[in-house]
Design goal:
The chain is of the alpha/beta class and 261 residues long. It is built from 8 helices and 13 strands. The longest helix is centred in the middle third of the chain and has 14 residues.
Length: 261
């Protein structure tokens, strides 16, 4: 079995631990948590040592893969340490800067390991982005509405930003954003990325939803994905683990992992 260190004890990290406890090919070897409050984390089935610093975990336990669900500031520290140690990496952190992504790519290629950076691990969300990319050349107006739980620290979401980038890159002409002549509240029409308006909603009771709306004369095309629980992300995480375990190189998104790119 391959030894996996889970970085981040938030909702996603805890769900992944539960998933790996019932998996035949991967096992939890330990946990990295920058906000560590205890030396151990216990589940119904086991107990795992918790490390505050990545280097302490990598020096003390055998690690094949690190999965990171922390935050962009900690990922910037964690990723180079993991990759330089020759260990495969899966990153689910959103809002990573272009500099951080470039560093991750360079260190992945230099150290000949595998790395997947994914804005969303739900397979339906990956397909939503894929379908949006395919639709993009046929329209020049689109808006994105993304909804997440009220504890999410960043907006827009990584999925919304990645969707907007895919639409923009695939479009034949520049997208046009309608601007109200009288904007009574600042940014009432949302934020804009390359002519695509993005609206972020944060509410308790929501996990992760996104709707992409394409518009043309007398028609709308709606592409929507709804997540009702975090178990929906786990098949995608397992596929990413399998990918980095068997392949070197750096990829962003799960499109290549699931064979649609």
């Amino acid at each position: 079995m391959k030894a996996v260190v889970v970085s981040g004890l938030g909702n996603m990290g805890k769900e992944l631990i539960k998933t790996l406890e019932n998996h035949n090919d991967f096992k939890v070897a330990g946990i990295i948590e920058p906000l560590k409050t205890s030396d151990y984390f216990s589940t119904e089935n086991s107990q795992y040592q918790v490390f505050k610093k990545p280097e302490d975990a990598l020096n003390k336990i055998k690690v094949d893969i690190v999965v990171d669900f922390t935050n962009s500031e900690f990922t910037e520290i964690l990723a180079p340490i993991v990759l330089r140690a020759g260990i495969n990496l899966v990153v689910g952190t959103s809002n990573l800067s272009e500099n951080t992504l470039k560093t991750i790519q360079d260190e992945t290629e230099k150290n000949e390991v595998g790395c997947v950076v994914a804005p969303n691990f739900a397979l339906g969300a990956v397909l939503m982005m894929y379908f949006s990319k395919k639709a993009a050349p046929f329209y020049n107006t689109a808006e994105i509405i993304e909804k997440h739980h009220d504890q999410k620290v960043d907006s827009p979401s990584g999925t919304a930003m990645e969707t907007a980038k895919k639409i923009s890159d695939a479009s034949k002409e520049k997208y046009q954003s309608n601007v109200s002549e009288q904007e009574k509240l600042k940014n009432a029409r949302g934020a804009t990325f390359n002519g695509i308006n993005i609206h972020s909603i944060r509410l308790p009771g929501v996990v992760a939803n996104q709707e992409v709306i394409f518009s043309a004369e007398q028609e709308l095309l709606l592409i929507e994905h709804q997540t009702t629980g975090r178990k929906s992300f786990m098949p995608g995480v397992i596929l990413a683990l399998e990918y980095v375990n068997n392949n070197n190189g750096y990829i962003v998104g799960l499109e290549k992992v699931i064979g649609i790119e």
